[in-house]
Every structure is written in C-alpha cells, then in structure tokens.
Amino acid sequence: MDIVELSRLQFAITALYHFLFVPLTLGLSILLGIMETVYVMTGRAIWRDMTKFWGALFGINFAMGVATGITMEFQFGTNWAYYSHYVGDVFGAPLAIEGLMAFFLEATFVGLFFFGWNKMSKVAHLTVTWALGIATNLSALWILIANGWMQFPVGARFNADTMRMEVSNFMEVLFNPVAQAKFVHTVSAGYVVGSVFVLAISAYYLLRQRHVELAKRSMTVAASFGLASALSVVVLGDESGYTAGLNQKMKIAAIEAMWNTEPAPASFTVFGIPDLKTHTTKYEIRVPWVLGLIATRTADTPVPGINNLVELAKERIRNGIVAYDALAKLKEDRGNAGLRQTLDAHVVDLGYALLLKRFRPDVQNATQAQIDAAANSTIPNVPALFWSFRFMVGLGFYFIALFALAFYLSAKRRLDTHRLFLHVCLWTLPLPWIAAELGWIVAEYGRQPWVIEGVLPTALGVSSTAPGNVLFSLLGFLIFYSSLLVADVYLMVKYIRLGPDGTLGHAVAAPFARVPAE
Amino acid sequence: MSQAVRRPHYWREIAILLAAKLLALTCLYFLFFGPSHRPLADSAAVSARILDSQHR
What are the helix and strand counts (H, E) for chain B? Predict the structure, then answer.
C-alpha cells in the first residue's frame, strides 16, 4: 500500500471508530433532557433515577468519544498536510469552532451534569442537561459544516499567489445546503442510535424481570422519541440525497448503479449486481419513475448516468488543463494580466486537471488516453456504494417499523408482555451503528477520488511523509483503539448488569414516590 | 464525640502522574511531532507538488 492508501485507511478506521461513540452521545444527551424534564414536571423520583442511570452510561460513552475524536484532528496535520494548506483557510474555521464547542461548552456542561445533582435547583440542573444536549448537537453542526464543504465547496475561491482556497463568503460556507441537510440527517441518526440503545437495554431488563418500572418508562420515552427520529432520518436523508445531487451527480449515479442516462423520470433499482467491467447492472429489479422523482423532484429532469458523466469529466479535464497551464506560467510571470484572466475563466475546472497528476507529471502534455483514464478515475466504487446505501435505507425503514410497534405496545401498556418483541429489541442493538457507519461509507467513499469535490484529488492532499510512519501509527491506533473498545464494552456491560440500583448505589424510587419540594 | 474524618491526600500520586504524563508527551513530541518529523506544506511546497512537471 502506498502513502495515499495508508493515510486513507488510517483516517477511515479512526473516523468509523470515532463514530461508534458520537451518535450515542447525540441521542442519549437529548433523551436525558426528556427524562429529566418529566422529573422536574412531575416531581417523581423514578425519573430522576432514570436520568442518573442513563447518564452514567452516557458518561462512559462520552469519554471515549472525546478521546477518539482528538486523533482525527491531529491527522489533518500529520497525514494530510497538503490538504490542510490547500483548504485550511476554509476548513480550519469550522474545525476550530467544533473543537471549542466540544472542549469548552460540552465538557463544562458534562461536569455540571454529573456533579451538579443536589448542588443546584431542579430547574437549574435541568437547564444544564438541555444545555449539554444542545452543545453536543452544536459540536456536530460545526464538524458537519466542515464536512459539507468538502462535499460542496461553496463560499471560497482559489488564490494563485498563496496556492490555496480562501474564504470569499463565510455565510455561504455556514449555510451550505449540503452541510445543513447532512447535519439534520446525522443528528437524527444519532437520536435513533440513542433510542435503540435505551430500547434494547430496557428490553433486556424486562426479559429478566429486573427494574421493570424503570425499564417500561425508559422504553416508552425511547419508542416515542425513536419513532419521530427514525421518520426524520428517512425524510432528511432524502433531502441529503437531493442536495448531494446538486454537485455530486457521480455519487448519486454510483449509488444507483445507473450507467447511462435514461429518459426522465428515471427508474429506481431496488436490486441488482453492478458489473464494473461491462458497466451494466445484472438481474435488475426496477421501479419506474421513483429515482427521477426522488433525485430531481420533477418528472421531466433526467438523472445523468455514469458513462455520460465520464464524458462530461473529459471536457472538464481539457478545460482544467487550460487553467493549469495558465497557473504554471503565472508562477514565472506573476504580473501577466492575460494569464490571470485565462486562469480565472477556467479555474472552476482546475481540480479536474489535477486528476491527471496520477497519470503524468506534466499535465499540459496529457494524451487522449491519459485524459480518458483520468475521467474514468472519477467513478467511485459502484458495488460498495450500491449495497451500502441499500442496507442503510433498509435498516432505516426497519427502525420506523420497530419504533412504531414499540409505540403501539407502550400506548396499550403491553410492553412487558411480548417476549418475542423484547428479544427483537435486544437483538436490534448493533443495527443502528451499522446503519450510521454505512451512511458515512456512502458519503465519503462516494466522494472519491476527491478529497474536496471537484477541487482537490485525494492523492494530492497527503503529506510527503514516509509510508512506514503512517503504517507504524496505524498499527498503534489499531492496538490502542482495540484496548479502548475492550474497556468501553467492559464498562458498559458492567454497569448495565449492575443495573440502576447498583450503579446509583441505592434502590430505584417507587413509581409514584415524589421528591420533596425544594 | 464526633471525630473529624481525615480524607487521604493524593498530592504525591497526582504529582507523579503529572510528571509521567509530561515525560510521555515530551517523548511523543520528539519521536513523532518534532521539527524533523514535520512535513513541510507551505505555498512553495504546494506549488512544487501541483505544478512541478517531475512530481507525480
């Protein structure tokens, strides 16, 4: 493996590992707010005990999430130094704000949440809990603004003198439609993870007839919040897909394994086996009109196919070569206004010319065969995207059905009488994590070969360090993260088995016991 | 008669831990993050990578 593949692998492993913790933090933080609100409104002590118990599990997860997030920020400097220089002016700001949110806002409220019980009034503590949830979500907002810019780089322009992308309109970066859609889709997915976690652990208690009152109430909260979240994930996922279609047409075509543009409205392939060699999809089962309506929200706009987009990429590469040539000459003749004008006229396709660097160093002299090869390199891994997307969507609909059933049983007060349903809830535990990871695979794998869509190819973003260094740190991460995972699972299992009584150090309050007024 | 509970002081342990942490961070810095390990990526380096006709 070369330095590019090793750096990508290291980032992928650390990011996917980090995202095991993030969605649970996002989901549980809001669920804690809901539970404590009920406690403050009703004065019933069982809701305080619920908040404290789920809060303890939240604390274990939160610590792991912070620890694994830090390493990713360092990688931008160590493994992606050229990327950091080229787009740091844009990418650095939201990343820095995210760091501030995570370390100052979130960490402060986490401390107050755990150590503020009995030291603050009920309402003050409730305010802290909600502030924790809001800070956690704000932290996610900023990192998704940074990621959204990588998918749809708006509000920035290339500066030939500094050789970097620079912010031209920060509000465009902030209100990037791709980032906003990704944010709401991602946090909703986090709420689903948190809800399934509470649902599954509560089902475990009900199956063993332990902590029945606490478990039933927890399941009720998880069922209603989870149902709303699961519905949101699907609706907002559709919005995320639509915004991706604005400038990542190749990603959409690859997700659908749609090789050629077909007359509008395009059909949706429910099942098929994409063949990379023949550029066809075998054994297709298609539903007419659906893709066209989802992807374009019209009945008369075609969805471009992969082969057609490759032809378009060839044109953009040729256009980019003009920009590249002007840029190279400008380095020798900085005051030449004509060259600067030529660069400005073609700079939008400069990134496409950079795709040729993989095939020949002197881009201006590329042959037609090399242009064809560079254009073909814009096709991401179609089978991986096709299947990742379908599993993710399938799981999304499964969660809606699961939460709807849980909600129904909760409303009928029959949650603890259906053992089969409780078993299903328990075994569902890993599924939202799988769905969330698949979502990131679709988003990031689908962006390849770009690290910044249409601007900077991934291969040009890596540091000029020795592959051995990256391999060494990659092995270090694997060993360290595996130890962390063992510690995390051990702690989670320990406190879940201990249950609320053992974790809190006292018996959970009776269902209708009230906490005396302050 | 109530006896005041004496809480154990952990100053020594905390000091040792902080010193060990500082030592570990210093070692990590010199082993992996010191100036000799730092990849150079300024405007000139980016120009060279992108525009150099020899660099792939």
Answer: 2, 0
DSSP state of A272: E
Instruction: Judge whether B45 is closer than 8 Å to chain A, CB to CB.
Output: yes
User: What predicted TM-score, i.e. pTM, was given to this entire model?
Assistant: 0.91
Cα–Cα–Cα angle for B51, B53, B54, rounded to 5 degrees: 120
Which positions in chain A touch B33 (Cβ < 8 Å)? 78
pLDDT of B1 over the 50 cut: no
Confidence grade of residue A516 (pLDDT, cut at 50, 70, 90): low
Task: Give the distance from residue A78's alpha carbon to the nearest chain B alpha carbon, in angstroms.
Answer: 7
DSSP strand pairing (A280-287 vs A268-275): antiparallel
A332–B contact, CB cutoff 8 A:
no
Residue B56 has a pLDDT of 53
Output the pLDDT for position A369. 96
In total, how many domains does chain B have? Answer: 1
Q: Which two tokens stand for residue A59?
A: 């604390």
Q: Do A331 and B51 touch (CB under 8 A)?
A: yes
Beta bridge pairs of residue A157: A166
For residue B3, being part of any structural domain is answered with no
Tell me the per-residue pLDDT of A158-193, one tens digit each, with 9 for 90 and over: 999 999 999 999 999 999 999 999 999 999 999 999
Cα of A467 to nearest chain B Cα, Å: 13
Mean pLDDT of A285-294: 89
Amino acid identity, position A449:
P
- Distance separating alpha carbons of residues A205 and A200, to the nearest angstrom: 9
Given a contact cutoff of 8 angstroms between Cβ atoms, the answer to whether A400 and A223 are in contact is no
Closest CB from A82, A324, A473 relative to B49: A82
Whether residue A85 and residue B56 make contact (CB cut-off 8 A), yes or no, is no
Q: What is the CA radius of gyration of chain B?
A: 25
Q: How far is CA A38 from CA A32, A41, A121, A191, A217, in A?
A: 10, 5, 15, 18, 11
pLDDT at A102 over 90: no
Sequence-separated (6 or more) residues with CB below 8 Å from residue A96: none
Which chain B residues are closer than 8 Å to A354 by Cβ? 50
Contact check, Cβ <8 Å, B41/A84: yes
Nearest to B49 among A161, A327, A460 (CB): A460
Cβ–Cβ below 8 Å for B47 and A331: yes
Contact (CB<8Å) B43/A362: no
Chain A contact set for B42 (CB, 8 A): 85
Contacts of A357 in chain B (CB under 8 A): 50, 55-56
Q: What is the pLDDT of residue A103?
A: 75
Instruction: Please indicate, yes or no, if residue B2 is contained in any of the structural domains.
Output: no
Please answer yes or no on whether A163 and B46 come within 8 Å at the CB atom.
yes
Hey, is A286 helix, strand or coil? strand
Can you give the residue range of the structural domain that contains B19?
11-51
| pLDDT computed for residue A100 by the predictor | 81
State the helix-helix crossing angle for A212-247 and A177-207, rounded to 10 degrees.
160
**Rounded to the nearest 5°, which phi and psi values hold at A170?**
-65, -30
**In-domain check, residue B4:** no
ipTM of the complex: 0.74
